[in-house]
């Protein structure tokens, strides 16, 4: 990964590398299941996505009759789905 220097912080050179960096910080970039964060919210998957972020990104991939919690966890454990969801919630 190429980083360019900005005093006193490093800048990531692409959107993809930004998400990979976030993924590595959040979970080591493996879907580790779910855990409770410092705000007592349950975060799941690659980006430790919580249910509020899933709702904010319009619940991608959720079937009409599918349980919201099942759809959230399924998305959180799918790198592409969770990345797209986090992207929407960041710029919401």
UniProtKB/TrEMBL annotation:
Q: Which cysteines are joined by disulfide bonds?
A: 23-29, 34-44, 57-85, 75-81
| GO aspect biological process, one term | killing of cells of another organism
Q: Does the keyword Hydrolase apply?
A: yes
> What's the superkingdom here?
Eukaryota
The question of whether Hydrolase is a record keyword is answered with yes
Query: If you read the UniProt record, what top EC class would you report for this enzyme, in one word?
Result: hydrolase
Entries under PROSITE patterns matching the protein:
LYSOZYME_I (PS51909)
Any single GO molecular-function term of the entry would be:
lysozyme activity
What is the name of this protein?
Answer: lysozyme
Q: Which keywords does UniProt give here? A: Antimicrobial, Bacteriolytic enzyme, Disulfide bond, Glycosidase, Hydrolase
Q: Which organism is it from?
A: Diploscapter pachys
Under catalytic activity, the entry for this protein gives: Hydrolysis of (1->4)-beta-linkages between N-acetylmuramic acid and N-acetyl-D-glucosamine residues in a peptidoglycan and between N-acetyl-D-glucosamine residues in chitodextrins
- Report the InterPro entries cross-referenced here: Invert_lysozyme
What EC number(s) are associated with this protein in UniProt?
3.2.1.17
């Amino acid at each position: 990964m190429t980083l360019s220097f900005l005093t006193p912080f490093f800048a990531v050179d692409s959107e993809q590398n930004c998400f990979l960096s976030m993924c590595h910080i959040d979970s080591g970039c493996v879907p580790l299941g779910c855990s409770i964060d410092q705000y007592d919210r349950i975060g799941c998957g690659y980006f430790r996505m919580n249910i509020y972020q899933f709702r904010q990104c319009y619940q991608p991939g959720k079937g009409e009759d599918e349980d919201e919690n099942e759809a959230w966890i399924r998305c959180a454990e799918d790198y592409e789905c969770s990345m797209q969801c986090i992207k929407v919630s960041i710029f919401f």
